[in-house]
Amino acid sequence: MTSISGTRVADNIHFYEPAQGHGLPHDPFNAIVGPRPIGWIASRSSGGLLNLAPYSFFNAFNYHPPLIGFSSIGRKDTLRNIEQTGEFVWNLATRPLAGAMNISCAPAPPEVDEFALAGLTPAASRIVNVPRVAESPVSFECRRTQIIELQGVNGDGVGSWLVLGEVVGVHIARHLLTDGVYDTAAAAPILRGGGPADYFEIGPDSLFHMRRPAWP
Predict the structure, then answer these.
(1) Which of 99, 94, 108 is nearest to 138 (CA)?
(2) Apex 190 CA angle, 51 and 130, nearest 5
(3) pLDDT value for 8
(4) How confident is the model over 53-66, as pLDDT tens digits?
(5) Max Cα-Cα span within the chain
(6) N or C: which end of the chain has fewer CB within 10 A?
């Protein structure tokens, strides 16, 4: 094995095959792919029951039209509601709302309204029939575009579903717009780390600028 400064490369690398187990006290996968933005998803069942739940496998996937998505590990209430109605709302999870966000992830039965459980206010959306979190400074009203069951390399389903939606309405608190430019740090968004209880907050001190290089 090639050496670096006299040390075998293999001695500096922990290698594992996920199918055989990671051999560590806690699975590092989530910690490595992170910190990750939080998909704090509001939905409503076809019978009118409200649901609010955070998903750490979440991100944006396209500019025009704007598409966001999250992965439901297992067939949870959020997934079933979106299958029924085709609508949901993403809400920005911030440091002041961290406690309420955490309460909303309790494994409550479908009849429990997590808005009420977490002491949050449902605010009517403009386009979809799902409320947003009034206390959140940013919300996206969304309509489902695709629900895809994820598969392993062998083609078998893994019991997780990727839910994609088009953003059809955007709510932004005006104090987060500086000369019309959205101030990411001012919103104090929180992100999910990889440990059992790890979260991170984005603040002004973490900001740096790097322009995309021009091509001759």
Answers:
(1) 94
(2) 25
(3) 56
(4) 999 999 999 999 99
(5) 67
(6) C
